[in-house]
């Protein structure tokens, strides 16, 4: 009888505690959607604020500099005194030089690493090599910049006669090394998602492991691979410190890659360090260049999303 009363009493206490906990859980359940909405709203608000700031300040720049002179001009000389010119094409060409060299380095190496990790490496080796490869993505870009200036450039000067201390080749190679983990990791994820039945079928038909990797797995994972390449291009276009330290500050509208160049991001860094006063045309020019850079990266990101949806294979 006593045990029954004790059990009943214990049961009532447990019910009271459960009711209290349930009330607390209900409060949490009601608050969490509002809290999550607030964080999402703040993120969107910050993004909209950045875009509108770029747009407003860019309009102020174009009130002073004709739009077509900026877009089609082949001379970028904002500090030339009485007759400054603001043709953005030399900055765009400098950016494309570095990006092109970076992709020549990153795409073959990244795809080779992805093929090895996906098709040849054992599970133990993959778990070891992939995190080590991704450590490259965590290295500060300022370190990459000094690496390009103090190691890669002197090494290239031994190989390429007449190579200037500031050039497009050295930062291009190092930017390629920097984005290599992005291409390798995303491509490996895409290749690993290809069903093993496709590999086994190809091997059963007499294909070699390399033929399976290049003729079966690679085409099947094409959407993820192309998306990783486009995202790599987007990151290379927006790279700042490497090109600022190793590329130079001489915007040129030519095809030379052994001379000093200047990219869009390097110009923004130059002006932001105090070379122009607030409210001057040079000051507003960094917003125009920043908006141009924003358009480039936005196009790259939209292209990556389009490629992923267009060429995606469903298994």
TrEMBL record:
Function: Part of the binding-protein-dependent transport system for phosphate; probably responsible for the translocation of the substrate across the membrane.
InterPro entries: MetI-like (IPR000515), MetI-like_sf (IPR035906), Phosphate_PstC (IPR011864)
Identification of the protein by name: Phosphate transport system permease protein
Pfam families documented for this protein: BPD_transp_1
Main subcellular localisation: membrane
Keyword entries, A-Z: Cell membrane, Membrane, Phosphate transport, Transmembrane, Transmembrane helix, Transport
UniProt cross-references to Gene3D superfamilies, sorted A to Z: MetI-like
PROSITE patterns: ABC_TM1
UniProt GO molecular function: phosphate transmembrane transporter activity
GO CC terms in record: plasma membrane
Domain ABC transmembrane type-1: 92-304
This protein's encoding gene: pstC
Annotated membrane topology: Multi-pass membrane protein
Subcellular location(s) of the protein: Cell membrane; Membrane
Similarity comment: Belongs to the binding-protein-dependent transport system permease family. CysTW subfamily.
Gene Ontology biological-process annotations: phosphate ion transport
Record carries keyword Ribosomal protein: no
Membrane spanning stretches: 35-56, 88-114, 135-156, 168-191, 212-233, 282-307
Domain of life: Bacteria
